[in-house]
Design a protein that fits this description.
Order of helices and strands: HEEEEEEEEE
Strand content: over 45%
CATH architecture of the largest domain: Beta Barrel
Number of strands: 9
Number of domains: 2
Number of helices: 1
Helix content: 10-25%
Low-confidence stretches: 2-35
Largest sheet: 8 strands, antiparallel, barrel
Mean pLDDT: 84
CATH class of the largest domain: Mainly Beta
Oligomer: single chain
Radius of gyration: 22 Å
């Protein structure tokens, strides 16, 4: 092989390796962006299924914003942990919230408790969170203040699947059912 041919092979190899590295780095960047977590945060525990009910006091009315208390309960399953793997069974997610809301918009803050499936061996996680609505999607974000994964950011997204009440003065929405559209996640800052 002559020197020109070797130089071309070295250049092609370097470009290919660089493209491969860029692809790996690009995938890592995309994964971080898709989880909604800041750079350096890694999802360590997640539950793919969260379904339950939200009750409102007083009931929600259409286009009448007012102070409301909401209690959100749900069954969590499909859980896994980055270090211990799949977690069998189901647990419970509960949040007690207050804020201003009507049938079509809300802005809540409050506290939550996650009782992990019994087989996990994890202590309950408690903390504070907020719930905001955007284009029909309910976004939960918060932080664990005590228990399993203290200081971990918590995130989830859900949609309402049914309502009891129509939103009128005589028939306000007193409860709704929901299911998650993005997993319930707890993350750690690894970097």
């Amino acid at each position: 092989m002559n020197i020109k041919h070797r130089a071309r092979l070295a250049l092609v190899s370097t470009v290919a390796a660089g493209a491969g590295l860029a692809g790996v780095l690009g995938v890592a960047g995309t994964a971080s962006a898709s989880t909604g977590q800041p750079n350096g945060f890694v999802v360590v525990t997640s539950c793919t299924s969260v379904q339950g009910k939200i009750t409102y006091t007083p009931g929600l009315r259409t286009s009448v914003l007012k102070p409301v208390t909401a209690v959100l309960t749900g069954t969590i399953s499909g859980c896994s942990n980055l270090f211990s793997g799949t977690i069998a069974g189901s647990g419970q997610f509960t949040a007690v919230l207050s804020g201003t809301a009507d049938k079509n918009a809300e802005n809540f803050g409050g506290t939550f408790t996650i009782n992990w499936p019994a087989g996990s061996g994890f202590n309950p996680s408690t903390g504070s969170l907020s719930v905001t609505e955007a284009n029909g999607l309910e976004n939960i974000s918060g932080t664990v203040s005590a228990g399993f994964e203290t200081s971990a950011p918590v995130a989830m997204q859900y949609v309402v699947t049914g309502s009891k009440g129509t939103g009128t003065k005589l028939h306000p929405v007193v409860s709704q059912t929901y299911t998650n559209t993005q997993s319930l996640t707890l993350s750690r800052n690894e970097g």
